[in-house]
Input
Amino acid sequence: MSENLRERPIGIFDSGVGGLTVFRALERLLPNESLIYLGDTARIPYGTRSIETVQRYALEDAAFIESKQVKAIVIACNTASALAADFLRSRIDLPVIGVIRPGARRAVEVTRSGCIGVIGTEATVASGAYQRAIHYINSEMEVIAQACPLFVPLAEEGWTDHAVTEMVAREYLARLKDSPADALVLGCTHYPILRPVIERVMGEKVVCVDSGEAVASEVARQIEESGLARENCEPRTEHFYVTDSAARFRRVAELFLGRPLLSLEVVELGA
Output
């Protein structure tokens, strides 16, 4: 495998700051790898868009990431993973890794009751992507899905410990809390930002499955098996791009990552 290919960064895209949960998981698991992150903040949220619109946005996001000479593309957005992953794989000659399949596998591994809860955007839940992925692994699993559309703007506001967030969580999660579900897939990459509130509402019996952690493990496996893992001990690099609201993105991202962003640039897609 060419040394040049191994040195290339891993590209990640999402509709906003939620994909930073995937970025953080990749950073922890693969500390030698350079990373590029695109947040399409001008067009958030993806979760209320049509399939055709999500596919168009995802293709523009992926084309930008691909232009940065990456070795793999991670779709750090459950909506885009559900509606556009196969669409991108048919058009891009790079490994394209979504968050649905890894998250589904992890949920099946941790459940003891055989009942799995899935929370996500309206588009992700309506697509049935997690239900299909879970049933593909084990057709005996019971899946209860719940759309939680207000979680995305709450996460974007950084309201991780706020009375309004807890009130909304209790309303959305009431049906799941009363169900036999003992594994809960956080089926939107924004949701781990609100994980403390979600865990508090659901109680200790429920294991929250962070799709970011699951997809990081899948990326690590794929680049290792394909010989693309970076072996150079020189410092890794990272670059962040957004399509709008750079100041707001920086504020939330630095709060979430616990450190300053050294490289943040506003770009225009599809121009």
